[in-house]
Each structure stands twice: as C-alpha cells, then as structure tokens.
Design brief:
The chain is 36% helix and 21% strand. It has 140 residues and is an alpha+beta fold.
Length: 140
C-alpha cells in the first residue's frame, strides 16, 4: 500500500494511485476528502517509496523514518507543526533521526515529513515496516 502513495508538486497532501493510462494517472486524496482527479505526465509526481532522508553515512528511506516516528509516538505526532517554533521542530526530529544531515535536510523537509506522517496515520496507513519485509520477499 505504501508504495502506491505519492506526492504531486504544487498540490498539498498525499495521493493514492488508483490507475494508470498512457498519458495520465488517476489518483485519490489520502485525506478524508477522498477527492479523485487526473494527474498528467507534465505534473511532477514522486512516489513516497522513492524518497529518502540524508544522514551522515547513508540515505534512509522515508518509510524507515516514519517507522521511527511511529515507534516513538504510537500514533499521531504530539508536536504541533503550526504552533511549534522551528527550533522545536528540529529538536524533535533530532530525537527521531539523530544522525540526519543538517546541511541537506531543511526545515521545510522536516515539516513535510511531519505533515505526511500525520496524514497517513489519520487515514489508516500505519504499516511502514511490514510492507518493507514483503517487498524483500517479492524481490527474491
């Protein structure tokens, strides 16, 4: 399920891939609206499975970051993205990913991670680690 979730440049939130045509995708908003719409080849679309966070030694897949947040929180984030100061947001992220690359991971990236995590958890997408194990089995 996680590998079918994507982000579209210029559009807020996350979307679930429903079907694919020759020149477009049909997507559905992951949030409560469940709004469906076409997305064309000219739109910049990125699957969440293709996103990683830079650390001092490697690039960590976003699903692993989400799994670490889930392990720490057991549900929706306790930190409020809108009312927290930038320092508080960064400090919280450091508790989750202490070795993230501070030169390449910006505050905007951290805010997106928090926002996406909350959208996924609030809408029932919480199995970040189990799917990864399934992907490894499929690859063999």
């Amino acid at each position: 399920m996680f590998e079918r979730i994507l982000t579209i440049s210029g559009k807020p939130g996350l979307y679930r891939l429903l079907s694919q045509g020759r020149n477009m995708f049909i997507v559905e908003a992951v949030d409560a609206t469940k709004k469906r719409m076409p997305v064309y080849n000219s739109d910049k679309v990125v699957m969440l499975d293709d996103i990683g966070i830079y650390t001092d030694t490697e690039e960590v897949p976003l699903r692993e970051v989400f799994a670490k947040i889930q392990e720490k929180e057991n549900g929706v984030l306790s930190i409020d993205i809108k009312s927290s100061t930038p320092e508080e947001l960064v400090e919280y992220f450091e508790t989750v990913m202490p070795d993230y690359d501070r030169e390449r991971v910006y505050l905007t990236h951290i805010k997106k991670i928090y926002s996406w995590y909350n959208i996924l958890v609030e809408n029932g997408v919480t199995d970040f680690v189990a799917e990864e194990a399934g992907d490894e089995t499929d690859a063999e």
